[in-house]
Specification:
Layout lengths: L1 H4 L2 H10 L6 E4 L15 E4 L6 H14 L2 E6 L4 H7 L4 E6 L4 H10 L11 H4 L25 H10 L6 E5 L11 H14 L3 E4 L6 H10 L5 E2 L6 H9 L3 E5 L2 H8 L4 E4 L16 E4 L23 H4 L3 H13 L1
Parallel strand pairs: 1-2, 3-4, 5-6, 5-8, 6-7, 8-9, 9-10
Length: about 325
């Protein structure tokens, strides 16, 4: 989800430089809602849900039957996108650089070749258009984008109708090691909501219900738990109406950033070198930057490889609350 959102600055830049071009986006169905209503795209083409190459070949043959593209921009750079790139649906093929060797050296050998100011992933995606036009296509001053529709915003307002003012708390993440402790989310949620006269609203997918219930059980206030009750688009619309966002390194973090929400996220096993820190947004990061075993992964683990989970355990409630106060008052 975050990967897709971080491509939207590139899409915007392409549309600005090529206003008359046809720009289509090929994507997995689960992430297609992220691009719904994006005015910089002509069409969002969904890959087959099964993911089988036979189904993918059918879709590509159908595309070839319409008209071949002048250029295929492969931003994802994996086996499936390689297949798309070489399927004959486009004339020119271009590939984004994701600095995989640098990433491998940092994670596996502790060798930092990124330098002191690593480029965000949204900027790395622009390598796919290096040398394409003169002057070059470059990032603008804005971050990622998502476009909730009026009907979705209205449905979100109904979902939080009992809240005069609220903060969104998103305690989950796909990988367990990227989740801050539930009792600390509860304490921080209570304190932040209390300080700013708001109510905590918990969000997440269906598989996150158990975790959100644990957070709710630890809270002394009475949160509104919407976990598993909303679609991704309505969850985004709920975030759009929030006073602030509190979460982990997840796609919802990037949605909050794309909607211009202030907030704080806790980073554990991953670091800014990998490119997925909040991009040109009002979202701040709390992390233990002195921990030498970070980063230990490019995406997360089921369990801490060292067994101590210090990257998350060493981040205190006070740090998060203090950082949130700073973000909200500034």
């Amino acid at each position: 989800m975050g990967d897709v959102l971080l491509t939207t600055p590139l899409i915007r830049a392409l549309r600005k430089r090529l206003p008359g071009a046809k720009i289509d986006y090929l994507i997995k169905p689960a992430f297609a809602p992220i691009l719904k209503g994006n005015p910089n795209l002509n069409r969002v083409i969904e890959l087959p849900r099964s993911g089988a190459f036979s189904d993918l070949r059918y879709i590509l043959n159908k595309i070839k039957g319409e008209k071949r593209y002048d250029i295929i921009l492969d931003i994802h750079h994996n086996l499936r996108s390689w297949y798309v790139r070489h399927s004959g649906i486009g004339v020119e093929k271009r590939l984004a650089s994701k600095n995989r060797l640098k990433r491998w050296l940092l994670i596996n050998a502790g060798i930092n070749t990124y330098g002191s100011d690593p480029a965000p992933m949204a900027v790395r995606y622009f390598t796919v258009v290096d040398g394409l036009l003169d002057p070059p296509i470059e990032p603008d001053e804005n971050g990622a984008e998502i476009f909730p529709e009026d009907a979705e915003l209205e449905e979100a307002r109904r979902a939080v109708a009992e809240c005069d003012s609220y903060i969104v708390v998103a305690p989950s993440a796909h990988w367990p090691t990227k989740r801050w402790l539930p009792e600390r989310f509860a304490q921080a949620g209570d304190m932040i909501a209390g300080q700013f006269g708001a109510r905590a609203v918990l969000v997440g997918a269906g598989e996150d219900v158990s975790l959100s219930n644990s957070v709710t059980a630890f809270m002394s206030s009475e949160p509104l738990n919407l976990t598993g009750k909303l679609s991704l688009r309505i969850t985004a619309a709920v975030i759009a109406g929030a006073k602030a966002f509190l979460g982990n390194d997840t796609g919802l973090m990037h949605i909050a950033g794309a909607l211009g929400k202030p907030g704080i996220v806790v980073f554990g096993p991953t670091t800014g070198h990998l490119g997925y820190f909040p991009y040109k947004s009002k979202i701040g990061v709390v992390e233990n930057a002195a921990l030498e075993c970070r980063p230990c992964t490019k995406q997360g683990h089921l369990k801490c490889p060292k067994g101590h989970f210090l990257c998350m355990r060493s981040v205190s409630v006070e740090q998060v609350v203090r950082s949130m106060k700073k973000v909200l008052t500034h």
